[in-house]
Design brief:
Blueprint lengths: L20 E5 L8 E5 L12 H12 L5 E5 L4 E6 L6 H21 L4 E6 L4 H14 L18 E5 L1 H11 L19 H20 L7 H13 L4 E5 L1 H6 L3 H7 L7 E7 L10 E5 L1 E5 L19 H16 L5 E10 L11 E3 L5 E3 L7 H11 L7 E6 L3 H7 L4 E6 L2 H14 L3 E3 L17 E2 L7 H10 L6 E5 L5 E2 L9 E2 L4 H13 L9
Parallel strand pairs: 1-6, 2-4, 2-5, 5-6, 9-11, 9-14, 10-11, 13-17, 14-18, 15-16
Antiparallel strand pairs: 3-4, 7-8, 8-11, 12-13, 15-18, 19-20
């Protein structure tokens, strides 16, 4: 595989994001704006508030049940945040993220450019989660706005925390861990500020890709943008064109593409550092339908409104791999991104057509709007060439997943990957990109049987999200996890730090999943 040089797109080029930078400071000083983080009202530092203000703060927390109280000092803001008493750490961290997003909103309304978080009691995890919520909640997609009066202004988030400072000092004076960049052991809390900046950047890039309209983001442009994004961090890139896909007999991708005037692409990303811990690579696959009309089975009503988001899985995989490479994690990972739009053109496939897939199996098309699984099937077959330790696919695959669990989690299914799914669920809980597992029982095979071909691409409506997973399973013979992210990938209205539109769901999940494997030494997973 070789890196590819990309031409710059002159019209509506994606611009670099103006993201707030998170940093540690060892100086306790008066900053433009302050946020005090503590767990008990009794620990409010003296000198900042009058007795009347302290009484007001106590009333807001004890009687009004507020967790975040602000004071306008005319030329700067002071916030007091009391960390919620939650026995479960993930819930406490999520509350911190949401409070951080709320504080960021207030600061941006005041046109603030800088803020300091003061960790009074030694609450490093909660302070970092608060900063994470601020940075993620800062995101805006203003590329096509001519009036940018409401553009966010926050540029710096400084953290004053003796606990984090001591952790960083202990890491800098110890021997380097497995990170190729020699910045301390993977997953150490002092590394989290660095990881946090990388993740916020990666999530922001993912959201940008999802929010782009198909009038600009075709399959070809998507492949080029991904290639440019990862090329400077050591990731190799190969973009396969239509001619190459024909040579590989990828009938699923080519079939979906038949009705389009734009060619398909299949992008292969590979992060393979000099020293990596896994004997066999992880393969991440993302569904890249850059726009889905439903094809000849045209979507009705407003069901087509936000179908630019049907490439959210591919965007998440690309940006997760970008984050892993930027962080220098010692893991061999391959990303596969099949991409096309799905349109009812004059040559579009119709119900009853039969496609021959990359692995030679035949599929009867009973609904052209069940197109994503056709792309994924070819990619899953192609993944076999890597003899993978594990394959995870991310896809906005079914409305059934949304109806089952809403937009609060991804629906997951696994084959030969029980332990890996447990680790993924742990990462999902900690990052609050939660994963709920569903079975792949053999009884669901029945509705995929075809009288004319090896399989149908659509089964019974009952259990539709599982049947879609069963279809994909037919193209695997390795440990496999399927994630249906149709619910959380795109939001109609803002939800705290997740915002409105593309959420970037899956980037933080996959990154934390890889970090957990590195920390745990790949126990049993790299040698199968």
């Amino acid at each position: 595989m070789k890196s590819v040089t990309f031409a710059v797109q002159k019209r509506f080029k994606i611009k670099e994001k103006m993201l707030p930078t998170i940093s540690l400071t060892d100086k306790e000083q008066q900053i433009d704006n302050l946020i005090i983080i503590l767990s008990r009202l009794s620990r409010i530092p003296g000198g900042l508030f009058s007795s009347g203000e302290k009484a007001y703060i106590r009333k807001q927390f004890e009687q009004e049940k507020k967790e975040l109280v602000s004071f306008n000092r005319i030329d700067y803001q002071i916030y007091v945040y009391i960390v919620r008493e939650e026995k479960e750490k993930p819930k406490r961290w999520e509350a911190c993220r949401k409070a951080g997003a709320k504080a960021a909103q207030g600061l941006n309304e005041q046109k603030a450019g800088r803020v300091a978080l003061f960790d009074i009691e030694g609450l490093p995890e909660e302070t970092l989660a608060f900063a994470e919520g601020m940075a993620l909640g800062h995101y805006q997609f203003l590329k096509y706005k001519t009036d940018r009066k409401g553009q966010n202004t926050l540029k710096e988030i400084e953290i004053y925390s003796r606990t984090l400072e001591e952790m960083q000092h202990s890491v800098s004076t110890s021997s380097p861990g497995p990170s190729p960049q020699g910045e301390g052991s993977i997953g150490h809390p002092a590394s989290s500020v660095r990881f946090l900046n990388i993740l916020v950047d990666a999530v922001s890039r993912c959201r940008d890709l999802i929010n782009e309209p198909n009038s600009w983001l075709t399959a070809s442009i998507f492949a080029q943008e991904v290639g440019k994004m990862v090329a400077d961090c050591g990731v190799s890139v190969e973009i396969m064109n239509k001619k190459k896909l024909e040579a590989l007999k990828m009938g699923g991708i080519l079939g979906v593409n038949q009705g389009s005037h734009e060619p398909p692409t299949f992008t292969v990303l590979e992060w393979k550092p000099e020293k990596y811990l896994n004997d066999k690579p992880f393969v991440f696959i993302g569904k890249g339908v850059v726009y889905d009309t439903g094809g000849m089975n045209l979507k009705t009503g407003n069901f087509m409104l936000n179908m630019k988001d049907d490439m959210s899985g591919a965007a998440a995989v690309a940006c997760a791999l970008y984050a892993v490479a930027k962080a220098g994690l010692p893991v061999h990972i391959v990303g596969l991104l099949p991409a096309t739009d799905n349109r009812p053109g004059e040559k579009g496939i119709v119900s009853g057509d039969i496609l021959r897939m990359h692995n030679g199996m035949t599929v009867e098309v009973t609904d052209t709007d069940a197109e994503g699984r056709l792309l994924l099937a070819d990619a899953l077959s192609y993944a076999k060439k890597y003899d993978p330790a594990l394959v995870i696919d991310l896809a906005t695959l079914t409305g059934a997943a949304v109806r089952a669990i809403g937009n609060f989690a991804a629906a997951a299914m696994q084959s030969k990957a029980v332990r890996e799914l447990d680790i993924l669920k742990k990462s999902g809980n900690e990052m609050y990109e939660r994963v709920i597992d569903f079975p792949l029982w053999e009884e669901y095979d029945e509705s995929l049987k075809s009288d004319l071909a090896d399989l149908k691409n659509l089964g019974a409506p009952e259990g539709g999200l599982i049947i879609a997973g069963k279809f994909l399973e037919k193209f695997t013979d390795y440990p496999f996890i399927h994630l249906d992210i149709a619910g959380p990938a795109f939001l109609e209205k803002a939800d705290s730090y997740r915002g409105q539109g593309g959420t970037g769901f899956g980037v933080r999940l996959l990154f934390d999943f890889i970090v957990n494997f590195v920390k745990n030494g790949f126990n049993g997973t790299n040698n199968r």
